[in-house]
């Protein structure tokens, strides 16, 4: 990246700090203020990668624009036009221009699917309720809580989180919706089994606050991005992404 960015001048800045790329392990996000700038960044990175015997996979590299104006310029890698998308998965999370709601809904769906796969455990009468709850929290809630520190919560999302938690507890307790058992009664049975406990929504809030506190006392890029202002007068923002390898993202 050092070689690729040697002559590159980015126009995107946050809090007065130029931001041209975000990197984690072998995943890279290239960020530009307009399509021409993004095309230049891709070209320079493609050239720098070739100098070190590496190749960008056009099939795994995507472009997403944060703009209401339609994209016109074709950006290519190895003669292949890069696909433009409205959402993509980066470091295991779904990134879109709709905020965190699609990612949260995806997490709810994955957790529900895992809940169904573990039906033999929930139906096993030889396993105590307290053991089932520990399994639920270790096997399922860890799926749901991944990267929850970055979520934006609202009333609708909070309602969905509570509903998913109740759905998990009802399945674990063997309660059918036909039984007309209230959520209060479900919570009472869970508390009788394991004692006072923290509900899922509270865990999400605690993790968000913990991450915020950790970021606030630091002096890194995360703090700059979270607290800095974005200059919106420099054209359309573009991004390319990929999941792995030496692909540009």
As an assembly, this protein is single chain
Sheet-strand content, in percent, reads 15-25%
Spatial order of strands in the largest sheet:
3-4-11-5-8
Globally, the shape reads elongated
Average pLDDT, rounded to a whole number, is 85
Q: SS-based structural class?
A: alpha+beta
Low-confidence runs: 241-249
Along the chain, the helix and strand elements come as EEEEHEEEEEEHHHHHHHE
Major sheet attributes: 5 strands, mixed
Query: What is the count of β-strands?
Result: 11
**Between the first and last Cα atoms, what is the distance in angstroms?**
12 Å
Portion in helices = 40-55%
Radius of gyration: 23 Å
The count of helical stretches stands at 8
InterPro entries: RT_dom (IPR000477)
GO molecular function, one term: endonuclease activity
Keywords: Endonuclease, Hydrolase, Nuclease
Protein name: Endonuclease-reverse transcriptase
Question: Could you provide a short overview of the structure?
Answer:
The protein is α+β, with helices and mostly antiparallel strands. The chain has eight helices and eleven strands. The protein has a domain at 117-216.
Could you list some keywords that capture this structure?
249 residues; alpha+beta; five-stranded mixed β-sheet; two-stranded antiparallel sheet; 8 helices; 44% helix
Helix and strand arrangement:
Elements: E1 13-14, E2 17-18, E3 21-24, E4 27-32, H1 35-51, E5 62-66, E6 76-77, E7 80-81, E8 83-84, E9 87-90, E10 93-96, H2 101-117, H3 119-123, H4 129-144, H5 155-173, H6 183-194, H7 200-216, H8 221-227, E11 237-241
Parallel strand pairs: 5-8
Antiparallel strand pairs: 1-2, 3-4, 4-11, 5-11, 6-7, 9-10
Helix pairs in contact: 2-4, 2-5, 4-5, 5-6
């Amino acid at each position: 990246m050092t070689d690729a960015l040697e002559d590159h001048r980015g126009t995107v800045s946050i809090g007065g700090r130029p931001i041209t790329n975000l990197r984690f392990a072998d995943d890279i996000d290239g960020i530009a203020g307009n399509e021409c700038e993004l095309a230049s960044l891709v070209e320079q990175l493609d050239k720098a990668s070739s100098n070190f015997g590496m190749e960008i996979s056009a099939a795994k590299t995507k472009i997403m624009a944060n703009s209401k104006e339609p994209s016109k310029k074709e950006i290519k890698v190895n003669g292949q036009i890069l696909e433009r998308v409205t959402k993509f998965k980066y470091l295991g999370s779904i990134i879109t221009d709709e905020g965190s709601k699609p990612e949260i809904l995806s997490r709810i769906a994955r957790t529900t699917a895992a809940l169904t796969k573990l039906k033999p455990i929930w139906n096993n009468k030889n396993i105590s309720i307290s053991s089932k709850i520990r399994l639920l929290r270790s096997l399922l809630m860890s799926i749901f809580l991944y990267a929850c520190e970055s979520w934006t919560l609202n009333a609708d999302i909070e309602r969905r989180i509570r509903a998913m938690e109740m759905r998990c507890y009802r399945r674990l307790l063997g309660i059918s919706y036909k039984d007309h058992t209230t959520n209060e009664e479900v919570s009472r049975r869970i508390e009788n089994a394991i004692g006072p406990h923290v509900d899922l929504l509270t865990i999400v809030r605690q993790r968000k606050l913990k991450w915020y506190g950790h970021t606030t006392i630091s002096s890194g890029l995360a703090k700059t991005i979270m607290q800095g202002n974005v200059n919106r007068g420099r054209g359309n923002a573009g991004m390319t992404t990929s999941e792995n390898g030496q692909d540009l993202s």
